[in-house]
Design a protein that fits this description.
Blueprint lengths: L2 H17 L9 H19 L4 H14 L5 H8 L2 H19 L1 H9 L7 H16 L4 H18 L8 H18 L7 H14 L5 H25 L9 H12 L5 H18 L1 H4 L3 H14 L12 H23 L3 H10 L6 H16 L6 H18 L4 H11 L10 H7 L6 H25 L5
Helix pairs in contact: 1-2, 2-3, 2-16, 3-4, 3-16, 4-16, 5-8, 5-15, 5-16, 6-8, 6-12, 7-8, 7-9, 7-11, 8-9, 8-12, 8-21, 9-11, 9-21, 10-19, 10-20, 11-22, 13-15, 17-18, 17-19, 18-20, 18-22, 19-20, 20-22
Amino acid sequence: MNKRLIWGLVAVLAYVVLAYAPIFPGLSVAGQRAIALTAAAIIAWVTEVLPITVTSILVLFLIPLLGIASPSDTLAKFAYPTPFYIAAAILFAEGMLISGLGRRIAARVIGFLGNRWDRVLLSVMLPTALLSTVILDIPTTIVFSSLALPLLIASKCEPGKSEFGKAVMIAIPVAAAIGGIGTLAGSGLNVQTRDLLWATVKYDINFLQWTIVGMPTAIILTFIAWFIITRMTKPEFEYVPGIEEFRKIRKELGPLSRSEKIYLITFIVVVALWFTQPWTRIDIVLVSVCGVIVLFLTGVLKPEHLKGRAYSILEIFILLSAINSLALAGLLAAGAIKWISNVSLSPAAGLGPLGIVFYSSTFAALLHYLAPVAGALVAIGVPTTATLAVEYGIKPSLACTPVGFMASNVFLLPLDPVPLVTYVYGYWKFKDMIKVGVPITIAWIVVQSLIIYSLQWFL
């Protein structure tokens, strides 16, 4: 029997079993159906039973059809800003390549540790993680995937076939997500965690406190992730041929072209506005869209440049819209995530500070399966763990910081914007990211738990 047909039947069976099981105490019918649909959708997305776009559209129709949420609520969450931001950000990153600036920067930066494939991979991951500590992880992923693509093209790494290309395009979002936990500025999830912690139990974590705990966690995890990826990759070559080409390009680089200058100025302004968003209050979606408009108006980007990316952008847009509708209009509004949180966290009573940290870390990692959008995870996980901590007489930051950190780990189920940025290049499938994501997640839980517990006095 066809594998896709088998997985399709498994997805349908998962929905039927979960949706029509006896209603769990404290869980509504809509909540139980939302959990069932989420399980079926995850199976379909990960195994690609149908094209991802088709599955996503089907999910959008099923949410109101199954009585999980009204059509108006479903469509309201469909129009959530994230998909628009990602679409604009992908086009903005494309402009770096088309202008020629990406090729220039890549020639200068990538391969500074040598041309052996594992060292090249590290030369990509380290600056990605470093930049992500002060710039949001999504823009960082966009920038470095744009820089790495010319190297893969020069090395003749074909999407879907190249093991080295797969490793690079997996390593970039991994490094960006890890670096993002380094400081409060590294991810919007960090700021969301801090704000919810204050709103729930009036406990504050400042920039310095977060950095003291976040930076060592990010540094250690970056090297661990690099080690895991290199051990799970069998590249088609030992030495990256494109590096030699980059060295030749470096010697031949002339002055900046008009397109490069325009892109560089636009990039600086856009990144500055991204970084200062907490103070300027200018929405990052608006900034990204305006940046793309500037590139089109100045001729750096042209309509014909969209031909190669149009379907990929549409696919990501619809996927993220479906996830938002399912997570926010379905699981969250129907009370399913809150029910799961309460049931899952009750066994943590009496574990002690170190046990609470480990439990919160593991809970947040697994919650990604029901809240693939990290913002929804933080919105439920932080208030729940904060309340739990106060109830058990434990410092709230000790229970909530693990949730904030782990929200950035989106590799057990790569349906978050960070990994999806490099997914559009076609070098990896969902199963490839999950395969690498499992050992990275286990290491992440252990490392962050030990560091948060050891440095708890600074939180």
